[in-house]
Write a structure and sequence with these properties.
Dihydrodipicolinate Reductase, domain 2, five-stranded mixed beta sheet, 7 helices, six-stranded parallel beta sheet, 11 strands, Rossmann fold, alpha/beta, binds nicotinamide-adenine-dinucleotide
Length: 257
Amino acid sequence: MKIALIGFGGMGKTVHRIAVERGHSVPVIVDPKASEATFQELSAEVLQGMDMVIDFSLGSAVLENAKICRDAGVNLVIGTTGWYDKMEEVRAVVEGGAAGGTEMETQPAVGFLWSSNFSIGVNMYFKIVQEAAKLVNRFDEYDVWGHEIHHYNKADSPSGTAKTLEKILLSNIERKTAVVEEKLSRRREPNEIHFSSVRGGAVNFAHTIGLDSEADTITISHAARNRDGYALGAVKAAEWLYGKKGFFGMEDFLKFN
Ligand SMILES: NC(=O)c1ccc[n+]([C@@H]2O[C@H](COP(=O)([O-])OP(=O)(O)OC[C@H]3O[C@@H](n4cnc5c(N)ncnc54)[C@H](O)[C@@H]3O)[C@@H](O)[C@H]2O)c1
């Protein structure tokens, strides 16, 4: 594929390396700041001849980028986070609805796939934790807790991945109805799950779920060594999306793998 990259920061650079390793070319790099960029701004013209756009940039740019990709007829993989309040507008653009298309159109104009977490390992981890949570639901001698650590430069806390883990635990363990993310200056209630966050170091991306009884402890952990897993997942998702039209999420891609 000929890939256009939007955003050439930590993720964009890693996606570039992995895409080239997998035999793709990256003739277009759009970034207003990076010195390696071939364009400062996205437009339909710069996408001429491209097969795919992969976007790891800034959430506020995603809706406009989707419109431009739609106009250029180029499929789009979005790894960027922070735009989910615009999900329905973006979907309307992709599917040719009021925000982006004409009434004559019945087929989606382009293929669009988004995920807040493209790491195949993290997505496997979600499924493993879901199965563990179902077991905890059956055996009430087990309590459950969560912990995550990320590099000092991470903007948000807890991580988006921790938020997903919390949802998985709450929706599968009936006796747990709330998560506490702050420091506890009191006893934890039986219906609560305590999920802590630590920030430090340069390359930390790790989550642990603990299942604990009087007799033993089971810990289920995922630790990423670098950004490669996220970038590889995004490039593989782009390969899957090639030639398809419609609005897709990570589950659609994972179903076929
Ligand atoms: N989905 C996933 O698996 C996953 C994994 C890691 C990061 N992310 C998300 O990807 C995004 C980028 O992460 P990062 O670590 O590479 O950040 P980063 O800050 O290192 O890089 C972002 C780059 O985007 C550029 N940029 C800003 N506005 C732009 C625009 N309008 N057009 C083109 N480029 C623009 C910036 O100049 C910068 O170079 C974030 O939203 C992050 O949360 C997602």
